[in-house]
């Protein structure tokens, strides 16, 4: 059987003392960033995992973190992926815990998690019920979603809408249409407001705000309802499904894309690159946001300064639906 790597092996590879390895893996302050990175790289290279039970007995630390989500059937998967990877790289084990669907039961379940003594920190991407955390683990709600998993945090930033409209206006577009998402979503409201503000500020003509849904069927119906003299126009869709429906309806009407109708989406779904024409969309780096949120929790657990907020989590990916092949 292959020998399991030890902290002594990590110390030897990193060129530090065994106590320094222990200090890094238990979150002790006073370790330089360079030394901490060297130890973590060595631990990752050796696939070293500390003995959490022994660590807990020695340090009163469990080496465990929890991420709580409010609805068992809806996990923010890419956020979780980034968060779990960041925790693992820092030497922690992460458990994902679903809170009950019913609001009155969530507080009791969260209290059980807090009082269990199993976790040094608890991260939530949604608001949490008020519970007593005094003397317990660090509890950090980062507010990227509301209780219904509607996006409320970083990804409600609608500046890419402004960027896309400005770019299309510079190409010569003067007539625009917005396919809006469902009104109850903060992200849909933010994109609608950015559309109205940019159209007004640039002196452009809006054919309206329609759809108020996230489905491809709604996007197709909105384009099918336009008058024959609507083109040339640019369609700003609140997500890629709306944009996909719009493209299909335009093709059925014989409108040439992007010359007679340009289209933009949002989410940059995997299939969007392979539509005909390929769809200009907004990519969202949810994995990096998840990692940043976990780094915030780990810094709070260790009593360290919070990490720097990442930039450019949203980016416009320009493709054929707005760009002529020769452009």
Automatic annotation (TrEMBL):
- Which CDD domains does the record cross-reference, listed alphabetically? HTH_LacI
PROSITE patterns documented for this protein: HTH_LACI_2
Organism superkingdom: Bacteria
Q: Which SUPFAM superfamilies match?
A: lambda repressor-like DNA-binding domains (SSF47413), Periplasmic binding protein-like I (SSF53822)
What UniProt keywords are attached to this protein's entry?
A: DNA-binding, Transcription, Transcription regulation
Q: Which residues form the HTH lacI-type domain?
A: 5-59
What's a Gene Ontology MF term here?
Answer: DNA-binding transcription factor activity
Instruction: Quote the protein name from its UniProt record.
Output: HTH-type transcriptional repressor CytR
Gene for this chain: cytR_7
């Amino acid at each position: 059987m292959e020998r399991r790597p030890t902290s002594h092996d990590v110390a030897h590879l990193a060129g530090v003392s065994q106590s320094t390895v222990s200090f890094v893996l238990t979150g002790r302050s006073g370790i330089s960033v360079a030394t901490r990175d060297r130890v973590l790289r060595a631990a990752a290279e050796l696939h070293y995992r500390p003995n959490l039970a022994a660590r807990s007995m020695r340090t009163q630390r469990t080496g465990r973190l929890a991420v709580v989500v409010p609805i068992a059937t809806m996990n923010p998967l890419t956020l979780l992926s980034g968060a779990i990877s960041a925790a693992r790289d820092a030497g922690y084990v992460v458990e994902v815990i679903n809170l009950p669907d019913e609001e009155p039961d969530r507080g009791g379940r969260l209290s059980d998690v807090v009082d269990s003594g199993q976790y040094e920190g608890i991260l939530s991407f949604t608001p949490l019920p008020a519970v007593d955390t005094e003397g317990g683990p660090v509890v950090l709600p980062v507010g990227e979603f509301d209780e219904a998993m509607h996006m409320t945090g970083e990804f409600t930033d609608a500046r890419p809408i402004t960027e896309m409209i400005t770019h299309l206006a510079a190409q010569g577009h003067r007539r625009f249409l917005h396919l809006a998402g469902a009104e109850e979503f903060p992200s849909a409201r933010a994109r609608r407001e950015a559309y109205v503000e940019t159209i007004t500020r640039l002196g452009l003509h809006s054919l309206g705000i329609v759809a108020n849904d996230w489905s491809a069927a709604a996007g197709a119906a909105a384009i099918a309802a336009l008058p024959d003299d609507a083109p040339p126009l640019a369609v700003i869709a609140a997500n890629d499904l709306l944009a996909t429906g719009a493209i299909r309806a335009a093709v059925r009407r014989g409108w040439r894309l992007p010359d007679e109708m340009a289209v933009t989406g949002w989410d940059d779904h995997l299939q969007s690159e392979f539509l005909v024409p390929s769809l200009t969309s907004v990519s969202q780096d949810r994995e990096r946001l998840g990692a940043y949120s976990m780094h915030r929790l780990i810094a709070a657990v260790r009593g360290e300064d919070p990490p720097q907020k990442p930039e450019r989590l949203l980016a416009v990916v320009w493709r054929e639906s707005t760009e002529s092949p020769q452009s």
